[in-house]
Amino acid sequence: MQLEVSKSTDKELSFAASGVSVALMNALRRLGMSSIPVFGIDKVTFYENDTSLFDEYVANRIGLVPIKTPEGYKAGESILFSLDKSTPGTVNSKALKSSDAKVAVANNDIPIIKLSEGQQLRLEAQARLGTAKEHARFQPGLIAYGKEGDGFAVTVESFGQMKAKEMVVRAAEMIGEKLGELKEAVKKEKE
Q1: In the chain, what are the domains?
Q2: CB count, 10 Å around CB of 136?
Q3: pLDDT of 75 over the 90 cut
């Protein structure tokens, strides 16, 4: 396999890959978009919401804010976020304060709601690890590919939970793990 990287930033990775099959590229794409565990807010407890929007609507908006997901966290771990705003103006994602400094919102400027004079929004939110197979809030980004000569032109776009390069590395590691499991199952079946 040969790779030629044409663009590499935290949010985007573009490369040409040759000597690889369509099946492998599709496995990389599918696992990268749907099976990498990332943090997402899926429980919100409202203590004060006298805005014009229902709790469920605000919770849905908060749930779609990408959360940075460093390595080292296990399934079942959760991180608490709090939000307490009562000043008029737009409440952006940076208002979500994390209980863990390493796990924070990936983009500070995502608008959640506008508060008018006298309105208050106070809540706690719980983020947990999940995959996009459960819900879009757990999708780390997009991976697309197309034919380029004898190979593939691949574009990876991260939503901010992790670097685009890290998405590809984690997806490739998953492919290796799954192939290892298959190998062991076949060995046991022969015996």
Answers
A1: 2-36+140-190 (3.30.1360.10), 38-134 (2.170.120.12)
A2: 10
A3: no
